[in-house]
Amino acid sequence: MEEYFRQLADFFSLSEAARGKVAPSAAVRHMKKGELLLRTDEKPAEVYVLQTGILRCFVLNPVGEDVTDSFLFRYGDVFSGRLDFFTGPEDSLGANAEAMAETSVIRLDLPKLLPVIRGEPELMELFCRLLSESYCSQMAHKYALYRQDAEARYRWFLESYPGLIDRVTHGHIASFLGITPVTLSRMRKKLKEETEAEVPEST
Fold first, then answer.
1. Would you call 79 helix, strand, or coil by DSSP?
2. Per the domain annotation, does 200 fall within a domain?
3. Could you tell me if residue 94 is inside a domain?
4. Under 8 Å CB-to-CB from 12, ≥6 apart: which residues?
């Protein structure tokens, strides 16, 4: 745990004082492929920071089907499942996350952490930055869904999530992009043909 937390503190450039205040609320969790971050009946009371692996974040639609909302695959990516980092009500978005590979996260206990954040400007600034980054990521996703056609969405995904196309089930990617698996397959084939056509023939 100490090594995981030290790396995380270094990554976020936390001062020694801030590290000491965050450490009591932190714990490491290792997940197997296919494991859910939260129980289906559990209301999230934690923030999770990705260390290794891939998390597929999803929400349930009105008929109970899960819809992929985002992928966390970069060190330091954050999952909460809540909108209310600071206000503290029990309501949640009903979001969850599934490990797409062997995954490790740092679990931060919100009930323990929130009082510390409120009294520590350095940590308040950090969490505001994380919220801002998460918001910008969500807005980029929504823009791709509502303002771009299927091909543009797919190209956006390849650019924004490099290498993930070969590491995540294509059905989940199609769900994330708001297209059918058949459309995704067609887009992949088209892009492959374009790439092959651009390769000059050897003389």
1. strand
2. no
3. yes
4. 76, 126
Q: Which residue has the higher pLDDT, 73 or 131?
A: 73
CB of 43 closer than 8 Å to CB of 80:
no
pTM: 0.83
The total of structural domains in the chain comes to 1
Q: Which domain holds residue 41?
A: 2-120
Q: CA angle 188-189-192, nearest 5°? A: 85
Find out whether 98 and 36 touch, Cβ atoms under 8 Å: yes
Rounded Cα–Cα distance for residues 33 and 102 (Å): 5
Query: How far is CA 198 from each of CA 180, 190, 192, rounded to the nearest angstrom?
Result: 27, 13, 10
Residues 6+ apart with CB under 8 A from 47: 78, 79, 80, 85, 107, 108, 110, 113
Range name among 59-63, 86-90, 192-196 with the lowest pLDDT average: 86-90
Stated length of the chain? 203
Element (H, E) at 25: none
CATH number at residue 24: 2.60.120.10
Q: What is the pLDDT of residues 156-182, one digit of tens each?
A: 999 999 999 999 999 999 999 999 999
